[in-house]
Design goal:
- The structure holds 2 protein chains of 2 kinds.
- By secondary structure, chain A is mainly beta.
- Chain A has 1 helix and 17 strands.
- In chain A, strands 2, 4, 6, 7, 8, 9, 10, 11, 12, 13 and 16 form an 11-stranded antiparallel sheet that branches. In chain A, strands 1, 3, 5, 14, 15 and 17 form a 6-stranded antiparallel sheet that branches.
- In chain A, strand 9 and strand 10 form a beta hairpin.
- Chain A is globular, with a radius of gyration of 18 Å.
- By secondary structure, chain B is mainly β.
- In chain B, about 5% of the residues lie in helices and about 40% in strands.
- Chain B contains 2 helices and 17 strands.
- At the A-B interface, helix 1 and strand 13 of A face helix 1, strand 1, strand 3, strand 5 and strand 17 of B.
């Protein structure tokens, strides 16, 4: 059964899920920053070791925002709030709540040819609750900072319609000596609206050192941090009440609007079931 | 069925549609920039080739995904994060064409095919429909003064539309000149001719018919969003082809544009 009324939203509200993440590093404007490995509550996640083909992720995964499947019916995001003070006078940016579907390991950062990925199937948690990949995005996540080398990175992928051989370019462009937790996303080819699987990863120039991972994810909600030291929130109506499918693995990205050092971010998530 | 209650909005929420575009080029203040051909998610559109009379659009690779509902569809939320200040304009792309000679300095016949029934009232009359000149390949030297001859929303032919922002020689790919309307007109039903008085020397341009759905301003480097009341919950008709225009308030290239759109179905 789906929630179709405000009364249904209220009846299904679940206990508050508070979160706190420590500040870490100096952000680069417009380059997303992953809080997956960052300490706090919940604690930081372990670096994956699932190999190049990766692992489909199902809750519970250490480091994820707590998420329980509904006893019956569906789960939705009912509230998402955060407050994050920053050094400097103009804090800005966005916190982006995502469902982490898949991650891999084993990419060689010094290899300059294509590396075979051949990802295992995503869990059935794309926009439509299927494995097709509608709305699924791919990111390159750094669990250890990289070294010198202005690499141009890309992926070869199969799109949401099952068409193979598409190429995704890194956006924003990869920068040498990227900081830990940097999270580069990949663009799609004309007509594509999601990614079903990844066949290969290519880096044109050695990154010298570091550890990187590919991550498949779906964006659930974007929270605008539009003023200093004040908590902002989305509720069921203003957030569009996106559905989360069973076994979701919620995690946070931060989209920096300046280079001010991050102080801890605190917030709450509420799910509603019905 | 039309949505008339908050419960109806809640019942009809669809999955968020994430988008991200890498805009490029020095902007002209107040001149729209089309992200239709810009890389990102969804991927860039290919320049159309339907010929002078153009094609009515019910889907086009590169559009923001739009699923038809059982009855009615509405825009319920939109967000934008941009690296620079400006305004995101979410539009429905109704029609576009190709084949304009950028060096011809006399009137060129368009005689557009009928729009799809997606004007402000869900008809083909053209109420609220706007016309833009979209540059898919940068133009060359030549300070063209261009205009269109059109039929208005009530069926009166022979009106002339001039670009709201004067054409600039060497316009960048993505430049999008919207046309003003003759006195008393509130939309465009069809386009008869396109005239450029001075050669643009080179480049590729297209006429586009579109309907504005929502505008989301941003100061840059801060995310802004509007919910269903802020947007006014505009109705989107079946087979809508959403695409994004950027209204720059600074000359900096909009190299990072990202956000989310949420629909609700009645």
């Amino acid at each position: 059964m789906a929630i179709t009324t405000m009364a249904g939203v209220i009846a299904g509200l679940q206990p508050v899920v508070p979160f706190t993440k420590s500040g870490a590093g100096t952000p680069v404007v417009a380059r997303p920053f992953s809080l997956w490995y960052v300490g706090g509550s919940p604690g930081g996640a372990a670096v994956p070791s699932s190999g190049l083909a990766g692992a489909a992720l199902s809750a519970p995964v250490t480091g994820q925002m707590p998420f329980l499947n509904p006893v019956s019916g569906n789960a939705y995001l009912a509230r998402f709030s955060a407050i994050a003070s920053q050094t400097g006078s103009n804090p800005s940016g966005s916190y982006i709540l995502c469902d982490r579907l898949w991650q891999n390991s084993g990419i060689s950062v010094t290899t300059t040819g294509a590396q075979t990925i051949n990802s295992v199937a995503w869990p059935a948690r794309d926009n439509d609750g299927s494995t097709n990949g509608e709305g699924v995005r791919i990111g390159l996540e750094l669990s250890t900072a990289t070294g010198a080398g202005a690499s141009v990175v890309s992926i070869s992928y199969t799109d949401q319609g099952g068409t193979a051989g598409a190429t995704g370019a890194c956006m924003p462009a990869y920068a040498a000596s990227s900081a830990v937790n940097s999270f580069y996303t990949f663009a799609l080819e004309a007509g594509d609206t999601g990614v079903r699987s990844i066949q290969s990863y290519t880096s044109t120039v050695s990154m010298s050192s570091g550890v990187v991972h590919l991550v498949a994810f779906r964006i659930i909600a974007r929270l605008a941090m539009s003023f200093s030291n004040g908590e902002v929130y989305l509720d069921a109506v203003t957030g569009g009440m996106p559905r989360l499918y069973n076994d979701s693995v919620p995690f946070l990205l931060y989209m920096p609007g300046n280079t001010n050092g991050q102080n801890p971010v605190h917030g709450q998530i509420l799910w509603t079931h019905g | 069925m039309a949505i008339t209650t908050l419960d109806g909005v809640i019942a009809g929420f669809q999955p968020p549609q994430e988008w991200a575009k890498t805009g490029a080029g020095t902007q002209v203040l107040g001149r729209y920039y089309s992200t239709f051909y810009a890389a990102g998610r969804p991927g860039p559109a290919v320049a159309p080739t339907p010929g002078m009379a153009g094609a009515a659009l019910t889907a086009y690779a590169g559009q923001i995904p739009f699923p038809n509902g059982a009855a009615a569809q509405y825009l319920a939320k939109a967000n934008i994060w941009a690296n620079v200040s400006g305004c995101l304009v979410i539009c429905d792309r109704l029609w576009h064409q190709s084949g304009i000679s950028v060096t011809t300095t006399t009137a060129q016949t368009i005689n557009s095919v009928a729009w799809p029934a997606r004007d402000s009232n869900g008809s083909t009359n053209g109420e609220g429909v706007r016309i833009g000149l979209e540059v898919s390949t940068a133009t060359g030297a030549g300070a063209s003064v261009h205009s269109i001859s059109y039929t208005d929303q009530s069926g009166n032919a022979g009106a002339t539309g001039s670009p709201r922002v004067a054409y600039a020689a060497s316009s960048i790919a993505g430049a999008f000149y919207d046309y003003g309307l003759a006195a008393g007109d509130t939309g465009v039903r069809s386009v008869q001719t396109f005239t450029s008085t001075v050669s643009m020397s080179s480049g590729v341009v297209h006429l586009v018919a579109y309907r504005e759905l929502a505008r989301i301003p941003t100061t840059g480097l801060v995310e802004f969003g509007q919910d269903l009341l802020g947007i006014g919950m505009p109705e989107l008709f079946n087979d809508t082809v959403p695409f994004l225009l950027w209204f720059p308030t600074a000359t900096t290239a909009p190299s990072v544009l990202a956000g989310q759109i949420i629909y609700t179905h009645g």
